[in-house]
Amino acid sequence: MFFQEPELQYEVTVEEPDPHFAKLLQQAIGGQEGEMRVAMQYMFQAWALPEEYEAYRNLLMETAAEELGHIEMLATAVTKNLRGSPTEMSDEAQETAAAAASMTGQNPRQFLSAGQSAMPVDSNGVPFTGGYIAASGNLAGDLYANVMAEATGRTLATRLWEYTDDPGMKDMLSYLIARDTMHQNQWLEALETLEDPVPVPASFPQEEENQEVNYTFISTRREPQSDPGYPWTEGESPDGKGQFSYAAEQPGDGEVVAPEPDPMTNNEPNRTDETSETDASEE
C-alpha cells in the first residue's frame, strides 16, 4: 500500500533552465543507473521474501518508496529545466520541434511526446526496461546487486553534479549522492547480518561442486604464465572456506562438435556436386 503527500522529498530549484541538462537528467530517471531501476528492483526483491525475513522486507520497501520520491524530484527538475528555458529562441524557431531540439539540445520527444516534461526514458530516449532489474529471490545475491546499483547510480549522480553549474541542481544532486552513500552502506551492513553471504546461494552443498577449481584462478593466456602472487591467486578466500590457487592454463577437453539436427529444422545446407563427389570419394 502506498500513500502520497503533495510535496517533494527534497526541494528542487532551477536558477538557469537548461534543456540539454534536462536530457542528461533523464538518465537518472529511466536509465540503467537510474531511480526507476532501483525503486522497482527493491520492490520486487521485497515481494519475494517470506515472513521470517520481515526486517529485510521492510528495509527494501522503505528504500524503494524513498526511490519513488527521487523519481518525482528528478521529473520535477527535468520539467523546470525544459519549460520557459529557450528565452533566446525566436517565435519562428518555436514553431517546429526540430528547430527547438537543434537549438536547445533537448530530446525531441520531450517536446513532441511529453510537452516539455519528463519521460520514463534514458538520456537517449530509450524507454525504461524491466531488464535492468535484478530480483533473484536470493536475499544475499540481491543485496550484492543492490550495492552495485547504488554504486553506479552514485557515479552517475556525481557526473551530473560535475557537469552542471546551476546551484539548485547541484544542491539536489548533492542530496541524491548522499542518499546513495547511505544506501550502499545499508546494503553492505545487511549483508554482514547474514550467516553465510558467500558463495551465493549458500544453501547449495559445496561438496557437490568441482573441488579442483572452486577456488582456483585460471589464466586464459595462450602461453602459460607464472603465478603473479595477487590476493586472488593465493591465500585464504574471503568466505573462509578455501585457499586460492593459480592455474597457468585451462583444463581443456572434448571437442566442439554439434550433434546432427532434426531434419525438420532444414539446417542442412545445399551442397555442390563437387562437394558431394568429394564426400563420396572419402567414403
TrEMBL record:
InterPro entries: Ferritin-like (IPR012347), Ferritin-like_SF (IPR009078), Mn_catalase (IPR007760), Mn_catalase_dom (IPR039377)
Region named Disordered: 84-106, 219-283
UniProt-listed Pfam families: Mn_catalase
UniProt signal peptide: none
Superkingdom of origin: Archaea
Family: Belongs to the manganese catalase family.
Protein name listed in UniProt: Mn-containing catalase
Taxonomic lineage from the root: Archaea, Methanobacteriati, Methanobacteriota, Stenosarchaea group, Halobacteria
